[in-house]
Predict the 3D structure of the following.
Amino acid sequence: MSTQTEGSSSAAPSYDIASWRGRIPLLTSLIPMNNCSQAPQTDATRAAAERYLDSWNQSGMDWDAWVEEVQLAKSEFARLINASSDEIAVFSSVSEATSAVASAIEFSGERRKVVVTEAEFPTIGHVWLAQARRGAHVAWVPVRDGVIDADAYDALVDEQTAIVSACHGYYLNGYTQDLASLANLVHARGALLYVDAYQTLGAVPVDVRAIGADFLAAGNLKFLMGIPGIAFLYVRRELVGRLHPLTTGWFGRANPFAFQVKQLDWAATASRFDMGTPPIINAYVARAGMAIINEIGVDDIRRWLEVLGQRLIDGGRERGFTLHGTADMSRKTATTAFVVDDSHSVELTMRRRGIVPSARGPVIRLAPHFYNTIADVDTALDVLASVVPAR
């Protein structure tokens, strides 16, 4: 651990940050502060993509090896969240994963309510709203002053609730929920808990056993150092046998390669949620990215991101920016959002000046990761200050 105070410009993480920075080519030309949107490429993820391309080029077709790579990626994801690989399904997006879960929930009996927060990424809300045709009724937990009103769950989650859909981190400003407490409430009312961890996994420790989550999904292009086009879903083992998703495909079968067109036999594991041919090259890259996070360790990453996140909050305050959401680092990720006019224009201008932020609605987000330094944060804030007048 660093011997410097956390606020010091010479603070450093417990791992060899210089070595890891040397494996990210983009850092020679830009400062990426957009991990809430897209991770930069590493030598490992590029090599993984090339390994698939070489296999395709040299063998023409090697489905045994390719499908095995998907299984290895499932195992790497399971390691991240303290699950077993047989509790993991693979998809092309979290939208697809959420739809699969929604299709497996019955909305024909007494339990027809879906409780969803206003902090969900829009795709999550859209999936649950689409279930109205199957009898679902969506109730909304409000966002107040940039944070989720946790007290509202008590009134909304009742004996009519089938499932609660709750993001771990708010995509707009990084606010995080206490999922373990929420799971206790949800289960006490006889409902299930679905978690979208896209904005936290890889940056905040996640243990599905400790949380008590029934489902958890995340994609790989953000803090898991991967690319678009792949996502994973955890399904608690005790639930698997009783769930039969309406959105399905041949990889959801007990033996996909039996090619039984007239037989809908379900895999005994969470693979019953798998759909069509999996995203093979994406799985190669995803596994390599997740292996980096597992090698460094999410606990150590989180400790460093607390330093960087606090630096962003304090530095933004010193420069007169308006923070969106909480300033309490114990209740948020390092993703820090400042209110701006025309965030898209701000993003483009900052890019031209060497900083890659992420625009989202009324805010510009600065989202560092394990490889970022105090100097990166200070430079990003200085560039933002040169672009945006203080409020």
Q: What stands out?
A: The first strand starts at residue 31 and ends at 32.
